[in-house]
TrEMBL record:
Source organism of this protein record: Peptoniphilus koenoeneniae
UniProt record similarity statement: Belongs to the class I-like SAM-binding methyltransferase superfamily. TrmB family.
Catalysed transformations (reactions): guanosine(46) in tRNA + S-adenosyl-L-methionine = N(7)-methylguanosine(46) in tRNA + S-adenosyl-L-homocysteine
Keywords: Methyltransferase, S-adenosyl-L-methionine, Transferase, tRNA processing
HAMAP family found in the cross-reference section: tRNA_methyltr_TrmB
InterPro entries, alphabetized: SAM-dependent_MTases_sf, tRNA_(Gua-N-7)_MeTrfase_Trmb, tRNA_methyltr_TrmB_bact
Domain of life: Bacteria
Protein name: tRNA (guanine-N(7)-)-methyltransferase
EC number: 2.1.1.33
Pathway: tRNA modification; N(7)-methylguanine-tRNA biosynthesis
Binding residues for substrate: 121, 153, 190-193
Listed GO MF terms: tRNA (guanine(46)-N7)-methyltransferase activity
Function: Catalyzes the formation of N(7)-methylguanine at position 46 (m7G46) in tRNA.
Length: 212
C-alpha cells in the first residue's frame, strides 16, 4: 500500500544533521562524518529504520549508512537515527542507482537488503535491487570477500536472485527458503518480517560472497 504523501518529510529531513540528500563528495568524507575510521556497512532500502537502528546499537564498532528514496517512510528512519545515543549511523535519501557514487573502491564489506520490491513482471525485473545491473554497481565498492545479506518474503525473487548472484561473481555462503527464528537468534525482525511471520509466510534468507 502506498504511503500518503507527507509534505513535511523532506523539509524536516533536510534539518536533520544525520540525513543527506546529495552524493557529491560523500566518498571522501565518511571518516570525517563519523569521526573515526571504523568499517562501514550499508543497508539498501531502509524504510522506517527499525533494522538499521537496532543493528547499529548492537555493533558500535561499525559505521552504518542506510539508503532509501521514499521519504514518506524514510522520515521515520531519520528520526530514529537522530534519537540514537550511539551516532554510528547515517541516512542518505537518494535513488539506489546512485549508491556507487557514495563510496570508494573496496571500502564496504557488507550490504543488507531486506524485503525489497520483488518487481514480478518481466519488464520490471531490472528494477530489483539484486538484478545484475545493480550488482555491477555494488561491485564498485564491495570488497572481494565482502557479502550481501538478502532477506525477502518472495520465493520467486529469491530463487532468481540466487542465479543473479552466481552469474555475476558471487557464491552462496548460506541460503534457506524458510528462515526459522530458532536457527537465527541474532536476527533483527523488520516491520515487514513481523507482518509476514504473523501470517505464517516463509521468509527466505541468503548470504552471498563476492569472489571476483
Amino acid at each position: 500500500m502506498r504511503l500518503r504523501k507527507k509534505h513535511f518529510a523532506i523539509p524536516e529531513m533536510k534539518e536533520n544533521p544525520y540525513v543527506y540528500f546529495e552524493t557529491q563528495g560523500l566518498k571522501d568524507l565518511w571518516q570525517e562524518i563519523f569521526g573515526n575510521n571504523n568499517p562501514i556497512r550499508i543497508e539498501l532500502g531502509g524504510g522506517k529504520g527499525q533494522f538499521i537502528s537496532i543493528l547499529s546499537q548492537k555493533n558500535p564498532n561499525y559505521n552504518y549508512v542506510t539508503f532509501d528514496r521514499e521519504t514518506n517512510a524514510f522520515i521515520y528512519a531519520g528520526r530514529k537515527i537522530e534519537a540514537l545515543e550511539n551516532k554510528n549511523v547515517r541516512a542518505v535519501a537518494i535513488d539506489i542507482e546512485q549508491v556507487g557514487e557514495c563510496f570508494k573502491e573496496n571500502t564496504i564489506d557488507k550490504i543488507y537488503i531486506n524485503f525489497c520490491n520483488p518487481w514480478p513482471k518481466e519488464r520490471h525485473k531490472k528494477r530489483r535491487l539484486t538484478h545484475p545491473r545493480f550488482l555491477k554497481e555494488y561491485k564498485k565498492f564491495l570488497k572481494i570477500g565482502g557479502t550481501i545479506e538478502l532477506k525477502v518474503d518472495d520465493r520467486d525473487l529469491f530463487l532468481e536472485s540466487i542465479k543473479y548472484f552466481e552469474e555475476n561473481g558471487f557464491e552462496p555462503v548460506e541460503k534457506t527458503l524458510d528462515m526459522k527464528m530458532e536457527d537465527y537468534p541474532d536476527n533483527i525482525v523488520t516491520e515487514y518480517e513481523s507482518k509476514w511471520r504473523k501470517m505464517n509466510k516463509p521468509i527466505c534468507f541468503g548470504i552471498f560472497k563476492r569472489i571476483k
